[in-house]
Amino acid sequence: VWKGEPTWNGVAILARGAEPVLTRDALPGDDADRQSRYIEAAVNGIIVACLYAPNGNPQPGPKFAYKLAWHARLEVHAEQLLDTGLPVVLAGDYNIVPEPRDIYATRSYDDNALVQPESRASFQRLLDQGWLDALRKKHPKETLYTFWDYRRNRWPRDAGLRLDHILLSKKLARRLTSAGIDRDVRGEDGASDHAPVWVELK
Q1: Domain segments of the chain: what residues?
Q2: Which of the 8 DSSP states describes residue 106?
Q3: Three-state SS for 169?
Q4: Are 43 and 13 in contact (CB under 8 A)?
């Protein structure tokens, strides 16, 4: 299942050996928001959400305001999902660097929407609700990057950021066995500037 826009935003959920059943094709809370940034589907008894959060740059400004408003809606909906007691995955490009260790040593991003205190606070509120950051759970001390900009030779220099996250509901968190990033994919010809992030559940 998928939802997309020409050129810009899009989200999709694919399953091997199963047919995802679409349960939601937009983030609730703003009927006027037509951007293709969120879908949910039921897959083998698990609710899987795929999201592509707003970048928010430049900030301050209307794009940053939209980013914060979108994340506020996500927080509300995420808490409602937890309240259902169902096993849920919230996966995608959150466009937030949660902590200083999740970005290479640089001052060039100091004014970027990805690292602003308001952005980081929104991500932390999701964790405070009870969502588990799967990558950090399995790699608590490692340097983890999922994104390397095409510009300024950032992939060869390993000048990366951790923007892509898989959050697990309380019921699903206990089933987590491993999590990782397929970094090598980023080095392939014509690759995305993001590397795949994955989890294994028992």
Answers
A1: 2-201
A2: -
A3: coil
A4: yes
Burial of 42: CB neighbours in 10 Å, binned 0-12, 13-18, 19+: middle
| Contact status, residue 195 vs residue 154, Cβ threshold 8 Å | no
d(CA 33, CA 3): 14
pLDDT (tens digit per residue) in 33-75: 999 999 999 999 999 999 999 999 999 999 999 999 999 999 9
- Whether the predicted pLDDT of 7 surpasses 90: no
CATH number of 2-201: 3.60.10.10
Banded model confidence at residue 81, pLDDT cuts 50, 70, 90? very high
Question: How many whole angstroms separate alpha carbon 24 and alpha carbon 188?
Answer: 34
CB count in 10 Å sphere of residue 66: 16
Q: What are phi and psi of 128, to 5 degrees?
A: -65, -25
Sequence-ordered list of residues with C-beta below 8 angstroms from that of 201, at least 6 positions apart, any chain? 172, 175, 176, 177
Which of the residues are catalytic?
52, 93
pTM of the model: 0.97
CB 114 within 8 A of CB 104: no
Beta pairing class for 176-181 and 197-201: antiparallel
